[in-house]
């Protein structure tokens, strides 16, 4: 009997794993719960940090091109003091669409990392493609980001200028969305020569 070997460390851990005591099981559950909270908090913090204008313009491609154009528009500086930032227009507020948009943005990071848009000339060469991708995305979600602030239901057409009121009334009747008419609202339009703009 004295010559019997005690089970090895690996075997004891294996047995404990498959037959944990109540204390070990409780520790495992509490540890998993705490780890889940830390992960979720870190994930959401990362999402919010990457959803700030400072993050968007940290790349010189954005800061030196579209951001400078945006600073000349009513979305940047206006009589009411309300500013729409990059994520307000380019990132959905709802969680699932936001995650989808973040995944799509990885393609944009690829373009930055590999220098496809790292000079003003290269940026302008790809401007039409990038714009069409964004217009298509906004058309498919009924310009949701625009409608977070501008909504046909809440517009007082009588307070608008005649041309704007007429166009908005027509857009409502035709089932159009913001991006159908407002493609150049915050950025310079790309060269559209020979391009069908009927999205």
What does this structure look like?
There is one protein chain. This protein has 199 residues and is mainly alpha-helical. The protein has a domain at 57-150. The chain is 60% helix and 0% strand. The chain has ten helices and no strands. The chain has helices spanning 9-18, 22-49, 53-56, 60-70, 86-90, 95-113, 120-140, 144-147, 162-174, 178-181. It is elongated and about 85 Å long. The termini are far apart.
Could you give a short description of this structure?
This protein is mainly alpha-helical. It has helices at 9-18, 22-49, 53-56, 60-70, 86-90, 95-113, 120-140, 144-147, 162-174, 178-181.
Total beta strand runs: 0
Low-pLDDT segments: none
Task: Note the overall shape.
Answer: elongated
Approximate strand percentage = under 5%
Give the topology string: H per helix, E per strand: HHHHHHHHHH
Radius of gyration: 26 Å
Let me know the average pLDDT.
85
Task: Estimate percent helicity.
Answer: 55-70%
Query: Structural class of the helix and strand makeup?
Result: mainly alpha
List its traits.
199 residues, mainly alpha, 10 helices, elongated
Blueprint (SSEs and pairs):
Layout: H1 9-18, H2 22-49, H3 53-56, H4 60-70, H5 86-90, H6 95-113, H7 120-140, H8 144-147, H9 162-174, H10 178-181
């Amino acid at each position: 009997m004295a010559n019997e070997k005690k089970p090895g460390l690996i075997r004891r851990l294996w047995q404990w794993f498959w037959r944990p005591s109540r204390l070990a099981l409780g520790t495992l559950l509490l540890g998993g719960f705490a780890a889940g909270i830390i992960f979720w908090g870190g994930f959401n913090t990362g999402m919010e940090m990457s959803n700030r204008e400072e993050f968007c313009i940290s790349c010189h491609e954005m800061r030196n091109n579209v951001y400078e154009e945006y600073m000349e528009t009513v979305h940047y500086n206006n009589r009411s003091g309300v500013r729409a930032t990059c994520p307000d227009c380019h990132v959905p507020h709802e969680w699932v669409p936001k995650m989808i948009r973040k995944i799509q943005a990885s393609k944009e990071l690829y373009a930055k990392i590999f220098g496809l848009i790292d000079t003003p000339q290269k940026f302008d060469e790809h401007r039409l493609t990038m714009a069409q991708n964004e217009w298509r995305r906004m058309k498919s979600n009924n310009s949701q980001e625009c409608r977070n602030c501008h909504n046909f239901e809440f517009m007082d057409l009588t307070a608008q200028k005649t041309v704007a009121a007429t166009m908005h009334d027509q857009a409502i009747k035709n089932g159009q969305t913001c991006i159908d008419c407002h493609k150049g609202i915050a950025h310079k339009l790309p060269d559209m020569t020979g391009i069908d703009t009927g999205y």
